Amino acid sequence: MILFDSLRERSFYNICVEGKFYLKPGDFHSFNIPCSSRVIKVKFAAKNHFGDGLLSLSVRSDKKSYMDKIFISSNKFDQYSFEFAFGDIPTFISIDLARESGINFGKVEIARLVVESKDKKEVVLQEELVKKTERSTVYCVIPYGIYGGAEVYLKDLINATKKENVFFNLLYLHDKNNLKTFFKDDIYSSARNFSDLSEMKKWITKHPPDIFLYYNRKDIYDLAIDLKKSGVTSKIVEIYHSDFIWPGAVANLNHREDIDTMIVTYPELGTQIKGVFERRTVPIPIDTVKFSKNISKSDMDIGLLPGKKVIGTVARLSKEKNIDYILDLAIQMGDFEFLIVGDGPEGPRLKNRVQKEKIINVTFAGHQDDTSRYYHLMNAFVLCSDMEGTSISVLEAMSSSVLVFSNFVGGIPSILEEEHSGIRVFGNAKEDANIIRSNINRMNVVSNARQYVEKNHSVTNCSKLFLSALLGNIDLFNKKARIPDSELVISGEFI
Questions:
Q1: Are residues 188 and 213 in the same domain?
Q2: What's the helix, strand, coil split of the chain in %, to 5?
Q3: In the chain, how many domains are there?
Q4: How confident is the model at residue 131 (pLDDT cuts 50, 70, 90)?
Q5: Same domain as 448, residue 469
Q6: Are 408 and 426 in contact (CB under 8 A)?
């Protein structure tokens, strides 16, 4: 039960400046709060503008007192949480926040202070209730009729958590037939097709989920905000998959209003986005058993010339993937075979170029539902995209013990450490051909890459993080504590 919330207490606004609560050296603020619990939890969001960031927190009853020294180190909002237990149930408690004059320096900002009762008996009952609770319902909007990296990411996470306490319902903004073989019927509980967002909004308002999950499109973010403002209390979760900017992308916005959680694929992604929300990192999951060097390739006869080393890539054949670079490499490295796995709008043009320029050492394998065995035809994997998030195909190659050569665009530096788990190329085919030839036998790099994927991208660990992000309690943003936007706006973000 919430005993005190600084966003709801009018008396608290007297110490606010434009909705923000600052503590400078010598400042002292005390809050007297009625209490009926032996155990309380004090939570607040804070960031350090400059200075030492030291802050004193004390909690007092008429018989007992506690004091903590807290170091606020980050210049972005972090969440801090403390529990205090009293022998007898106090009638009142005092919460004091202070910074010492002459010792502390600089300025600390507090975005929100919440005090909750948390009796041990109550905690036990809540845990028992959770165990008995029916599965949570997640509505996940699938906005496109094609699938790319975001869809692969989502599918793998849903598939890994399908046996947990969650029902996934896919909401399509198009005929789902294009994705019928991709989102298998056994990984979600139901699916619905909608002709437009208006129809979807009416249906969700009538049948609200526990969790509303979306990605990439700004108009679906707008829908989520409209649902909140109309009284739908679903938890709003955004998957922020990449910084790609295109008309209609939610990545065009550097602020979020009214979402509860943002899931990113690596910690540095989306740090420019402001707003008060919980931020969770859920890395790309990779099946390290499926993508391993132990896969048999005895039946993989796709026309590659025997006895030659193979350089390959797995990608959607679209403009930003820069597949022309692969063809340029093939021209420079005629003694190697090149394998391109994937299909897309650039496919016909690329194949026509191969024929026109008589690039005889290139094989197109087309789209493959299961790419795992194709990695084992490769001696090296090459990627040189113009834009890239966290590349799934790079991680699959690393897991498959295939040496990766890549430019360091987008999220690639978050998964590849230069000269340790991958080799950097720069987009000049002539120069990069020399880099590939000089490094293609770097087996220590291959081993390091495999170990990295096993440690950081296993399906088991990533699915647990995903489930926690969906179902985790958002302490500082309890739905009952909401106030109108016109009364208070807090800037910042949770990490």
A1: yes
A2: 30, 30, 40
A3: 3
A4: very low
A5: no
A6: no
- List the CATH number of the domain containing 147: 3.40.50.2000
**Cα distance between residue 424 and residue 408, in whole Å:** 7
Q: Which domain holds residue 224?
A: 134-285+460-481
Contacts for 370 with CB less than 8 Å, ≥ 6 apart: none
Max distance between CA atoms of the chain, in angstroms, equals 88
Give me the phi and psi of 127, to 5 degrees please.
-65, -40
CA distance 135 to 144: 27
Query: What pLDDT was estimated at residue 14?
Result: 52
As a whole number, mean pLDDT of residues 131-144 equals: 74
Cβ within 8 Å of residue 246, ≥6 positions away: none
Tell me the one-letter amino acid at 92: F
CA distances from 313 to 101, 305, 321, 377, 431 (A): 61, 17, 10, 11, 19
pLDDT tens digits for 187-202? 455 778 888 999 999 9
Cα atoms in the Cβ-side hemisphere of radius 13 Å centred on 127 = 7
Kindly give, in sequence order, each residue whose CB lies less than 8 Å from that of residue 418, ignoring residues fewer than 6 positions away: 408, 424
Do 450 and 468 lie in a common domain? no
**pLDDT tens digits, one per residue of 40-84:** 888 878 888 887 778 888 888 877 777 777 777 777 777 777 777
Are the C-beta atoms of 44 and 135 separated by less than 8 Å? no
Residue 465, Cβ density class (10 Å: 0-12 exposed, 13-18 middle, ≥19 buried):
middle
CA proximity to 404, closest of 383, 390, 426, 374: 383
CA 410, 413, 416, 419: dihedral to nearest 10 degrees?
130
368-386 average pLDDT score: 92
Residue 403: its pLDDT value, please?
A: 97
Closest to 119 measured CA to CA, from 5, 206, 1, 247: 1
Contact 160, 289 (CB under 8 A): no
For residues 346 and 403, membership in a common domain is answered with: yes
Q: Are residue 63 and residue 148 in the same domain, yes or no?
A: no
The alpha carbon of residue 370 and the mean position of all alpha carbons in its chain are separated, in whole angstroms, by 25
CA-to-CA separations, 305 to 151, 310, 360, 377, 433, in angstroms, rounded: 34, 9, 10, 11, 20
Asked if 36 and 89 count as a contact pair (C-beta separation under 8 A), the reply is yes
In the chain, pLDDT over 70 holds for what percent of residues?
A: 82
> How many Å separate Cα 255 from the centre of its chain?
16
In a domain, 198, yes or no: yes
